[in-house]
Amino acid sequence: MKERRIAPRTPFTTEFRGGTRAVQERLCNLFTGVKRRGTPLVALTLALALLAGGLVACTSSVQAANTFDVPDPVFELAQDLVPDISGAKLTHLAWIGSYSGLFENATVDAFSYDVGVPEEDPDSVPLVGGQYVDEDGLFHEGPHSLLAVLNREGNFTFLADAGPWIDGPAPLLLSDALRTIGESREDEALTAAGETLFAQYHLDLADEALGWLTGAASCTGDTYTDGAGVVWLQLAGYEKWHPDLRVDDQVLSQLYFIFPRELAVRIMQQYVYIPDGLLLERDGRLWMRQDAIQRSFWPYTADRDTLAVVEFTSTRCVFTMEGTDHDEPATWVFTLDGKGRATSWLFTQYYTLSS
Q: Which class for 101: exposed (0-12), middle (13-18), buried (19 or more C-beta within 10 A)?
């Protein structure tokens, strides 16, 4: 790709990227440095600043306004990611989600952002991967990148950025970014936050896949009472899309994504493929027994706030949580094994379910 056009240099050009905060820091450093060299240089610097009307960033004479639905401090942090190229600007900034339990008394807020850089001849720019040139002639490295900030009671601090973000769940991208940056800086807190988020994300997947078994499934609010007086709740998100396929096959497919195949089949054989199963197909929808949690004998709980990662490698993640087993205190061990890719991590240990 050809070299990008930058703003012209002047005798007062200062090379740095960023917005107001970066300018203020540079000016503070400038005067601090001069002060150590003696009074004459301080006077000379002040005189030059007054004559020039002050030092400014040559590529951003007017501070950009926050037109996005995000707090101003987050907008300023994102502005610092815009390169010092004339005409470069932030074209997208949106909240993705907040993640707790990673840092004490704080959340990690994730945002997607995009930066456009002008091209003199947009039609001749070679594009690879997810790169594209928009209708305004701005070049983009990819669909979006990810910005992570630490939110401590409304005080936002930059944590990490990653991208361009082509595909994949945002929590996994954020987890990878936190772990990578933490390891490079030898920052144990950042590394641990990334590992915890990885465990949380996969635990969410498992909890959702077994919601009909644990009483945590999302329902539409519709109910049905059969001839035996059993009340059924309609599960949300399940619909018959092929006449030859059972609706509960969609549940089995979800379990395949979370657990080893043998364990997934065993769960279905124990709770679904029986005369008094917990799931029912009716009118092309999937229904769950209202008393499913009592009939499944699932008297297990765990406290998410106690999640602790005890082992983390490229192919194995082991974490624990404190909870109860039949109302008695218990320490649950959860084990994920895989090849290090998002779709290949499987729970081989989940509460009392083991492969």
A: middle
